[in-house]
Every structure is written in C-alpha cells, then in structure tokens.
Amino acid sequence: MRLYHSTRGESRKLRADEAILRGLAADGGLYVPDSFPALDLRALLPLDAPRLFARVLSALLDEYTEAEMLEIVRAGYENRFLTDEITPLVKAGDMYILELFHGPTAAFKDVALALLPRLITRAAGQLNVRDEIRVLTATSGDTGKAALAGFADVPGTSILVFYPLGGVSEVQRLQMVTQPGRNVRVCAIRGNFDDAQTAVKRAFADPGLNARLGARGVRLSSANSINLGRLAPQIAYFFKAYLDLVRAGAIEIGEKINFSVPTGNFGDILAGDYARRIGLPVGRLLCASNANNVLADFIRTGIYDRRRAFLKTASPSMDILISSNLERCLYHMGGDAALVRAMMADLADKGAFHAPAPLMENLRAVFSAGWADDSAAFEAIKKLYHETGYLMDTHTAVGHRVAADYRRESGDSRPMVVLATASPFKFAEDVLRAAAGETLSGFAALGRLSEVCARPIPGPLASLRNLPEIHTDVIDAADLARYVEEAQS
Ligand SMILES: *Cc1c(COP(=O)(O)O)cnc(C)c1O
Fold first, then answer.
1. Exposure string (b/e) for 408-424, b if CB count within 10 Å is 16 or more?
2. Does the pTM exceed 0.90?
3. Predicted confidence band at 489 (pLDDT cuts at 50, 70, 90)?
4. Best substitution site from 108, 234, 269, 270 to test ligand 1's pocket, by max atoms within 8 Å of Cβ?
C-alpha cells in the first residue's frame, strides 16, 4: 500500500484516505506519495473515460480499489458533466485544446471537486469517523461554486462558502447565492478576499471552536487545492488527452507531447508532472502565468519573490502571488524536506526564497515558463477566433499565447495541448470584446457570444437569471467563527 508523507519532514506516514481527510500535515507541509505507480499506456488505450479515470485514481490512491473509484467517478460526473467524454480534446489550428469546463460551474475545478466529497466521505467511513464533515471555503469566485456543486446534498457533509461582499463578478455571485441543497450555506463577508480567507484560517486553528463542534459531532475540513483529493483527478485528464491523440492517429504510442497550463496555484500543472512520473510521455510542461508572473520569473531565475504589486487581470482565477502547490514540486525536484522547510520559512518571513541550482536544473528539465498580460491574451483570443472560429476564455488564452511564443522561440514542434480551464461564456464580456470588438455586459454578453460562436450558452449559466436568490446572509469577518458554530447541521 502506498503511503504519504509531508513535504516538510514530519515523520508520520499516512494512507491515502487519511491524507485526504486531513488535508494539510501538522507541520504545515503538503502530503506527497512515497513512490509513484507505473501505468502501462497500452493497457489504458481500450478504456472509456470513466474507467480511465478510475484506473489512474486507484493507481495513485491505492487505498481505494478500482471498482470503488469507478463508482465514485460515475456518481460524481453522471448527469453533471455535459459530456460522457468528461474532458474532450478538440483541434484548433496547429494546437489541441483540452476542454476541462463541461462541468456544473463551467470551470476546470469541477473535475476534481465533483469527486472530492465522495473521496472524503469514503475516507471517513473507512476510518470510522462518524462526525459530520463541515467544509469551509473562502472564495474569490470559482472555487466556492465548484465546491458547493460538489458537496450539495452529499450525506455526512455540509459546506459553508464565504465570499467578499462586492468582490466577485455578478455571474459568480449569482452562481453561489442560487445554490440549492439541504447542507449548503453561502455568506458574504464585509471585507475583501484576504479578510474572508484569514477568518476561515482562524476558524480552522481555533481550538475552542473545534472542541465545541467536536462535542456536537462536527469536524472541519477544507476543499482547498492543497488537498491530495483535489490533485488526483486532474492527473487522469492528462492521460485522457494523450490517449485521444493516439486513438486519432495524431501520435504514435510512446511519442512525447507538450502541455501548456494556465497556472495560478500550480495545482493543475503539478498534476501534469505527476502524470509524467506515472508513465505519461511528456516532453515539456509550460507554466503559463498572467501579469502576476511570479512563477514565470521563478522558473527562469530560481528566485521566488512575492514582494510585488498584486495585479487585477482579466484572468482573475490566476491572480495569485503565493502558489501553494509549488511546494510539492520543489520537494520532488529537490528531494529534501529540510530544504523545503527552509525555503518556505524564507517565503513566510522575507517574502522570497532562492532555490539551489541543482533543484532548478531538475525542474527546468521538465518545466518551461512564460507569461502573457491581458492585451497579449486578448490578441490570442482574436487571432485563434479569426483563424479557426474557436473561442477561448481569458485564462485559456494565456496558455495559448505562451504556447505559441514557446514554439516560435524554441523551435520545438511536438504536438501541443493547451488546457482550457474555463468556458468562454464564464468571461463573456472580455471574450466578446477581444474576439468581435463588441462591448456588452451581463446576460446580453452571454447571448451575443452564443450567436457569435454558434454554440448554446452552457445550461448552468443560462438558467441563472431565472433562479431565486436563496442565500442572503452578510456578516463581519470577526463573526465568522460564531456563524460556523451556529450553522444548523
Ligand atoms: C483555478 C484556475 C486556474 C489556475 O489553476 P491552478 O491549479 O491554481 O494553477 C486557471 N484557470 C481557471 C479558470 C481557474 O479557475
């Protein structure tokens, strides 16, 4: 059985289900596997999408059998993903686009958050934890809704989402406040995202609150991307894209391909590296940043420095200066928990750290980096639309632009898969302006975009304007702990 340990050297080893239930190690590190399985590509070729996901997931999280995983995958995706391909691959011009946005919230986080609740409840059952698992999430928009959609009405769980009042887009707000479900609560915080995030972290660390909840059979948990259970499902779609190319005759089995990944917290691209370690023939992983280019700078220089202005961009889900999952990458590339601990301490104390040359050499053998600001991303949307008729969202456009730049500069002509992390309809105003030069807002932009690309508005977004607003709570950040305690279970 595969065990997991912390990136920061804590000696305790855990089973996959324990690591998923705990989320974060007690020393502040993230859980990583002691070893990686090896998958045989040829054996994966005949599998349909759900079976492929189940095979990949149970290979890494081998505490769960493949049959159990298949049940979890089927229950998680059935009737909620608009395609039984789960993550279809399409060709547009000279690159491939891996569409990860066909889930209930039209962004890629659905792929993992549709499974996480079941991974958690299965873990709780296996470990004889009978408490209600109460998931707290602070969100700047996307994660909150994907977590709500994943946890709604899942027995044994409840979910509380906190968003900054006035700090999310109207579509994002509507997506959250219209969320039905017996076990869901959505609450606005007077303050910004950092205030909400800090208040949630304080609740996790509040011994009095946790003891009082524990006495009532409630245990707090997180749906954040540091949870191993959110990483694992993302590995599967890298395999899916590769096998689709083999089946289409675009590549020979064993041939290496490249992936470009619009990156914020480094979770999605790290899943690509895990896929490589498990046996996927990966040439390069392109880390594509927006104008918050702290990661692109790091990969080029070896210096990670977050002491810079936080910029608001047209790809808000990538507006991040501290990329949590980079820690896992640093651990695997350096192989040294003491080194990771020291680098993370420098990041916390000084706002910067320096990675040693041998670690960076290992890292650069796999990862390349680039970045695109809003105007470069908008150009990419326009160019691809005019050349092929394909419309990308603002995040995907960053990945596409970085991929095009990389190809031109490196001469590397391997097949390139760009991960499409959100539906263009989710960022309709910017996409419409970039592609067609038209300025419309709200649902008018959605409707016009649908005409422009001759595709229907995704159902979950189209129905928003007719749904009742259920959640109207607004609190001060200081009252969050009391709110969590008083939420009915
Ligand atoms: C979260 C998100 C990203 C960034 O993914 P990471 O795993 O945090 O790197 C990119 N695009 C969209 C649309 C997202 O929601």
1. eeeeeebbbbbbbbbbb
2. yes
3. low
4. 108
